[in-house]
Structure of 25S rRNA (uridine-N(3))-methyltransferase BMT5-like domain-containing protein:
Amino acid sequence: MSERLEVLLVGEGNFSFSVAVCESGDVENITASCLQTEQQAVAQEHAAHNIQRLRDRGCTVLFEVDCTCLNEHEVIRRSVYDRIIFNFPHCGRKSGVKKNRTLLAKFFISCAEVLKAWRRSACGSMQRPRRHSM
Ligand SMILES: C[S@@+](CC[C@H](N)C(=O)[O-])C[C@H]1O[C@@H](n2cnc3c(N)ncnc32)[C@H](O)[C@@H]1O
């Protein structure tokens, strides 16, 4: 990736993927997030250690981030990102294809509101991303 990219990771589990991205050295500004509360997140194996590794490297770690409404999060809404990554997106063990498709569709729509490229074009045209029915 190019230099000084602002990258947001959503839907993390124990934050091991975020640590891998961070330690790859390709990205300098990382915000790693998960849907769960901090208490729920650190209950997962290795999570507390991974979160500490991220913080030690200057990354921001956020909890209770719903990737389908990123613009409603008080920290995320004040930021703009070059890239947003959701590794292994999934609603949960028993959710079917339809539910997972809906999650992805809502995630993509939500991304548009906090992505640098869209914000820049929106300033010029005042257009919002079109919402498609799912
Ligand atoms: C299969 S796990 C993948 C975890 C992690 N990204 C990884 O690669 O190891 C799917 C993750 O998606 C998260 N998730 C599901 N719906 C979400 C939502 N609306 N917003 C944010 N995360 C969500 C779950 O909490 C879970 O951690």
Notes: The first helix runs from residue 16 to 24. The helical segments are 16-24, 38-42, 47-56, 97-112, 116-125. The first strand starts at residue 6 and ends at 10.
